[in-house]
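fyi for ur records
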Amino acid sequence: MTRADKNAFREKLVALMSRLERDRAQLKDEALRPIGGDAGGGLSDVPLHLADLGSQAFEEELTLDLAMNADKIAEDIKAALARLDEGTFGKCEVCNQAIPKARLQAVPYARYCVSCARKTTG
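which gave:
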């Protein structure tokens, strides 16, 4: 992998991390948004029907799951940036073979080649 390739992947990872940080902040704000009316004594927006409460709980749980997934991807991106600094970026952590550029372009924080990824997640 050339220096230009590594620089391009670094830029891609940094941009992805930036976008992910914005998304994570928004997801966490949505998930942790308090329910109820405004402090001025207006009408409450708390759902009164049990189905509405269930829907709200499901949406909150889904949003928190998405935020946790974003946290995991952020960790993976940080690890990929560290591998760039160490000079091991683009090599499978299991078999030490080069990860194809097409895979890295699709998933720039990939740690494994496709074959090893199938074995580790299967």
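The CA atoms of residues 63 and 71 lie 12 Å apart. thats all i got for now
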